[in-house]
TrEMBL record:
Highest taxon in the source lineage: Bacteria
Record EC number: 1.2.1.79
UniProt family annotation: Belongs to the aldehyde dehydrogenase family.
Gene that this polypeptide is encoded by: gabD1
Domain Aldehyde dehydrogenase intervals: 3-458
Protein name: NADP-dependent succinic semialdehyde dehydrogenase
Signal sequence coordinates: none
Broad EC category: oxidoreductase
Record keywords: NADP, Oxidoreductase
InterPro entries per record: Ald_DH/histidinol_DH (IPR016161), Ald_DH_C (IPR016163), Ald_DH_CS_CYS (IPR016160), Ald_DH_N (IPR016162), Aldehyde_DH_dom (IPR015590), ALDH_GabD1-like (IPR044148), GABD/Sad-like (IPR047110)
GO molecular function per UniProt: aldehyde dehydrogenase [NAD(P)+] activity; succinate-semialdehyde dehydrogenase (NAD+) activity; succinate-semialdehyde dehydrogenase (NADP+) activity
């Protein structure tokens, strides 16, 4: 794929970039290693100062970078502004909490006395340069949620961003440079996916993190395993949205639409499979479909637009194939199911609700990356759990019930990295984020995510010390 900004609302190629050559990649690796040797010894106070400066700059740049994101991948402008604001908030969160999250741990001397130690300390030290392979759908947030904790821990970063968001990728490097970080502390690599393996095998790369497709995750995990390097993977999702009889149906339908179509439906943690108890199925389906039908599809720069274009022509084609396959095999399109006829240019697709899903349909097991929801009718809680877990993915889940016993059952049995009761899945810097099954492994955010790229070091002090 060419490294280029292509406006998905028009299909127009606006700017192209040359990929780095081998010598330029080597220069980046040298700078990253040199920067790490400096940055790892800085105090938390200095790291806090730098990250807060970056947050202030990002706030000042909010409208400009939001317009860049919308131009490159098509999300509605209001959502792009919200993404930039969330990134600045997360920077401030880590700047405030990092020192406490990575504070030395002191085991009780009585608990380790038989080790011969007078005392012992557990210390978190940075690993080195981390390679981040990031996707286009949240082009700023996906990077910052890795970069903020990694930099506060004393690591340095190299970013291989998706090839369709190069201007956003370059902005992130420049943001950290303007904030005062040492040269090479965080760098963007404009490279194709074919160059990733050699970089990952370089001994100056200590670890890797990837958010993206399952095939991409497998490739990075295979190389990292061969090199015995730490990885964190956040891959696909086909999150269930369970609606049980005690749910507030009006609120569930309203939030459910947002949960499905956020970011034009292109979110790994978007609710995709709506699993509804038969006692409330018809009432929920009517409310939900009505709200999906009422959404405005159009220019993502227009403040009144709810859904912009998909990020690429291929992405729309992939989504169309899933919908067409389902309809051909008996599913019913309660709304949508086609390209909007009024939008001849750009890669738009109508908000779509499909019912009558069966296991023969590809969409039953494959992730639909766009504004397409599937409805399932279930007889009871047992069937709801079975359908929710009948997927190779396990990123997050949503459950709408006010019954404490049902909540406890779902907390125990849903196979996912998160269960959100009576609300939609969302990420927050203070909460760990990640999945189960083929949605990946490891965690981002919170102290758990921050410590993924630290060397947990045991310090043992003998009796003579």
């Amino acid at each position: 794929m060419a490294i280029a900004t292509v406006n998905p609302a028009t299909g127009e190629t606006l700017k192209t970039f040359d990929a780095l050559n081998a010598g330029e990649i080597e220069d980046h690796l040298v700078r990253a290693e040199q920067a790490f040797q400096e940055h790892r010894t800085t105090t938390f106070a200095r790291r806090r100062e730098l990250l807060l400066a970056a947050a202030d700059l990002l706030d000042a740049d909010q409208d400009g970078i939001a317009r860049t994101m919308t131009t490159e991948m098509g999300k509605p402008l209001a959502q792009a502004r919200a993404e930039a604001a969330k990134c600045a908030k997360t920077m401030r969160w880590y700047a405030t909490h990092a020192e406490a999250l990575l504070a030395d741990e002191h085991p009780d001397p009585a608990d380790v006395s038989d080790s011969g130690a007078r005392r012992a300390v557990v210390r978190y030290r940075p690993l080195g340069t981390v390679l981040a392979v990031m996707p286009w759908n949240f082009p700023l947030w996906q990077v910052v949620r890795f970069a903020a904790p990694a930099l506060m821990a004393g690591n340095t970063g190299l970013l291989k961003h998706a090839s369709n968001v190069p201007q956003t990728a370059l902005y992130i490097e420049e943001l950290f440079r303007r904030a005062g970080y040492p040269e090479g502390c965080f760098q963007t690599l404009l490279i194709g996916s074919g160059a990733v393996e050699d970089i990952l095998r370089d001994p100056r790369i200590a670890a890797a993190t990837l958010t993206g497709s399952e095939p991409a995750g497998r490739a990075v995990a295979a190389v990292s395993g061969d090199e015995v390097k730490k990885t964190v993977l956040e891959l696909g999702g086909s999150d269930p949205f369970l609606v049980l009889p005690s749910a507030d149906l009006d609120k569930a339908a309203r939030v459910g639409v947002t949960a499905r179509v956020q970011n034009n439906g292109q979110s790994c943690i978007a609710a995709k499979r709506f699993i509804v108890h038969e006692d409330v199925y018809d009432a929920f389906a009517e409310r939900f479909t009505g709200r999906m039908t009422a959404l405005t599809v159009g220019d993502p720069m227009d403040e009144n637009t709810d859904i912009g274009p998909l990020s690429s022509e291929q992405g729309r084609s992939d989504l169309e194939e899933l919908v067409d396959d389902a309809v051909h095999k008996g599913a019913t399109a309660l709304c949508g199911g086609r390209r909007p006829p009024q939008h001849r240019a750009g890669w738009f697709y109508e908000p779509t609700v499909l019912s009558g899903i069966t296991s023969e349909m590809r969409i039953d097991q494959e992730e639909a990356f766009g504004p397409v929801a599937t409805l399932y009718r279930v007889a009871d809680l047992d069937e709801a759990v079975r359908v929710a877990n009948d997927t190779p993915f396990g990123l997050s889940s949503n459950a709408w019930t006010r019954d404490p016993d049902e909540q406890e059952r779902l907390a125990r049995d849903l196979q996912a990295g998160g269960v959100f009761f009576n609300g939609m899945t969302a990420s927050h810097p203070g909460l760990p984020f990640g999945g189960a099954k083929r949605s990946g492994y490891g965690r981002e955010l919170s102290g758990h995510g921050m410590r993924e790229f630290c060397n947990m070091t045991t310090l043992w002090y003998g009796p003579e010390d």
